[in-house]
Design a protein that fits this description.
With 347 residues, the chain is α/β, with parallel strands linked by helices. It has two domains: 128 residues, Up-down Bundle (Four Helix Bundle (Hemerythrin (Met), subunit A)), CATH 1.20.120.420; 202 residues, Rossmann fold (3-Layer(aba) Sandwich), CATH 3.40.50. The protein is built from eleven helices and 15 strands. The chain has a seven-stranded mixed sheet, sandwiched between helices. A three-stranded antiparallel sheet has the order 1-2-3, covered by helices on one side. It has a three-stranded antiparallel sheet with strand order 8-9-13, covered by helices on one side. A hairpin with a 5-residue loop joins β8 and β9. α1 packs antiparallel against α2. The longest helix is centred in the middle third of the chain and has 31 residues. The protein is globular. The model has no long low-confidence stretch (mean pLDDT 95).
């Protein structure tokens, strides 16, 4: 087996403070933000210093712990404020279900029968558990997904579904890493992922760091490469998956799914079970975040669009289930028809 470099840890808890690798600075600078207050954490999530559905879920859990560790007061006040803080964290970014899922797990960990110190202890145990479970889930996703990827294939991915988007290792990139670790020669094509270039900046940085063959393309090149037979499979992550298999992911994913179908290329979605939303029958109920138009108009502070011209900046799109070949989860592969989702995921 091939040994990759020491894993990337985008989230670190030292027992008192939370450290977040500032992904806005990559690939040029690796700098951690020391998060001391929950409002700082919320800002990190909103400004995408930390991003990726599983990662912001873990960060949200640690955010509640951070607030609890610093609380000084009576139990009644603790519980009242705790629930208010939980609500604020949950809405920091609306599309990824992992954020509200992790916060709800933290909320359900404590109750009024405990004293404050017991609640703090339980919260720390749960936050660490959520983090550890995510890394373990990524490894399992990699093990299941590796079986779907043939030696010598070139795999296309969109945005960043790697260690940076999770607790470590990655979902879509976790599959690639497992293939490499098991001796398969895999090449990766990474869509640049406008407007914030998560593919060009983050995915390429991760894979280059591990010595994995990666080529960045403009988002609009994908169909041409597929047509020329240069892509063997597509693997992406997800931010929320409905019970029928519709899913939300970074804007541009839907186009890639349609192109994959047209060119008869398998289209895989790698995500932990926490990304499935048991309350959604289909994708029509998934909230889609619309971000500031300045992200489209400017690159590194330089205006790219004429002054006075409007821009639309939806952060995600919804891909209908019929374009998905299979979902790769830590609990196994879910194939069409997707009526087995609830049973396999356990929700």
């Amino acid at each position: 087996m091939v040994s990759l470099k020491k894993g990337i840890s985008p989230i670190i808890w030292d027992g008192n403070h939370l450290y977040i690798l500032d992904q806005r600075r990559l690939p040029h600078e690796e700098k951690f933000i020391k998060v001391k207050r929950v409002d700082e954490l919320i800002k990190c999530i909103k400004t995408m210093a930390i991003r990726g559905a599983p990662a912001i879920g873990i960060a949200g859990a640690y955010g509640l712990l951070l607030w609890a560790k610093g609380f000084k007061g009576k139990k009644g006040e603790f519980l009242k404020n705790f629930h208010a803080i939980a609500s604020k964290i949950k809405v920091a970014r609306p599309t990824a279900v992992n954020l509200s899922w992790a916060v709800e797990r933290m909320v359900k960990t404590i109750d009024s029968s405990m004293d404050i110190e017991e609640m703090k202890k339980r919260l720390e145990e749960e936050a660490k558990k959520i983090h550890e479970e995510d890394i373990s889930a990524n490894r399992k996703i990699g093990e299941y997904g590796e079986k779907l990827i043939k030696d010598g294939w070139t795999v296309l991915t969109h945005c960043n579904a790697g260690a940076l988007a999770t607790g470590g290792y990655g979902t879509a990139l976790g599959v690639i890493r497992t293939c490499i670790e098991r001796g398969k020669k895999i090449k990766v094509v990474a869509c640049e992922t406008r407007p914030l270039l998560q593919g060009a900046r983050l995915t390429a940085w991760e894979l280059k760091r591990d010595g994995i063959d990666v080529t960045v393309i403009t988002d609009s090149s994908a169909g041409f490469l597929m047509r020329k037979g240069l892509i063997n499979a597509v693997i992406v992550g997800a931010d929320r998956i409905a019970m029928n298999g519709d899913f939300a992911n970074k804007i541009g994913t839907y186009s890639l799914a349609v192109l994959s179908s047209e060119n008869k290329i398998p289209f895989y979605v790698a995500a932990p079970s926490s990304t499935f939303d048991p309350n959604l029958k289909d994708g029509s109920g998934i909230p889609i975040e619309e971000r500031d138009e300045r992200e489209v108009k400017f690159i590194n502070g330089k205006r790219m669009v004429p002054a006075g011209v409007k821009a639309i900046n939806f952060a995600f799109d919804i891909t209908p289930f019929q374009y998905v070949t299979a979902f790769i989860t830590e609990k196994g592969i879910i194939r069409k028809p997707f009526k087995s989702i609830r049973k396999i995921i356990g929700c």
